[in-house]
Amino acid sequence: MREKDMLKKNTVGTFPEADSHGCISRHVRRLKHQDTPGGAQIVSQDGYLFVGHISPPAGTSIFDVRDPKNPSLVTTIELVDSQSHSHKVMVHGDLMIVNSQRHRRKFFRKSEVLDSVEARLALEFGRQPTEEEIAQALNVKSQDIETLRTEFATGYKNGGFRIYDISNPARPREICFQPTGGMGAHGFDFDGQYAYVSTEMPGFKGNILVIYSLTIPEKPQEISRWWMPEQETEGMGTGPVNGHWLHHALRNDNTLWAACSHSGVWAIDITDINHPVTAGSYNYHPPFIESTHTVMGLPQIYQDKKLALAIDEEHDNHPRGQPHAALWILDVTDKENIQPLSVFEVSELDSPWSRSGCRFGASQIVERPTGNLTFAAWFAGGLRVIDIGDPLSPAEYGYFIPPPPQGFTTPQSMDVEVDERGIVYLLDRNRGLDILEIF
Q: Where are the domains of the chain?
């Protein structure tokens, strides 16, 4: 189906006419579209772009974007095993960190409850349940049961993160692999000296914060941990309970701003980095149903108030009638009494793909302050450029909605980056990278 015909079929509102490439935009211009496997994180440094991919075998790609209209792929690091993905990447100076996490972890997590489900069904039926009955209880296919049994027997042993020397971006060299636990590392921040890693670890439910010193990159040294109440458990550790886990944390001065999924926003005081302590928290779940994805401190002061941004991540099967994932501006002057100042949302009328059956709401922001213009990836809503000059009334300055990648029904803009020149990069979860400029 042609792009313009697809737009007509999916449109629920009135939009500017798409250009010849199927793009809908305001105050944003596409410089180049780059075909690449889908990903979850992009970062830039010194004219190079680093892309963490969602699915194996692609791990991390590095693009030369010194000429943004003519980008070139300089290398792709392929994964060492088919069980993992490395969808997150951070760089600082000559070092790059990528995560190693169980690919399709939510599916393979079901192996942990396979025996208990089978035992429950046997008690309920008075006989051994069939594979089909077990599969139905786990909401998987019957042919998946053997895969889950194998996973339970062998486990996942490749969780952690890898450190690379990128002094020559075209020839990244692995320095070391740091194992963690469980399903591995998810997200992190990295300031050149410390890595602030969200990972599963033995003895905990869901991801916690583990801080590593990378003074000697070949030998990361764990120096401290932080976790929320009730995360401690016995044994090898388990997955999150009721969304109670750390997505990742970003450093701002001596505060780590932690996005804790359905546990909301947490401020961690690292004045003594060897002993992180909770400084405060704020949770808007319920009534909002989508998880807190990223929290970032801002340098702006508004009427003597210190500010932070928080953005949710929308997930599959979002219930109709519920608020979509959104962007929050918070008053964090008193960390023990964090208060919301405003919320920015995108209406379903503002994207032709909003009711396509895929994720529509917010996904991610650029993970460093970018002045009064904030850049947010919005899944089927594309890129949203938001003016936060008035924190009480954030307003949209512009947007860019790409067409669906070939073979997919909708765009799924998952991450966004802005380099020091103001060039914007928008990454699709399924496939493709757009290089953009604002005007």
A: 1-37+286-439
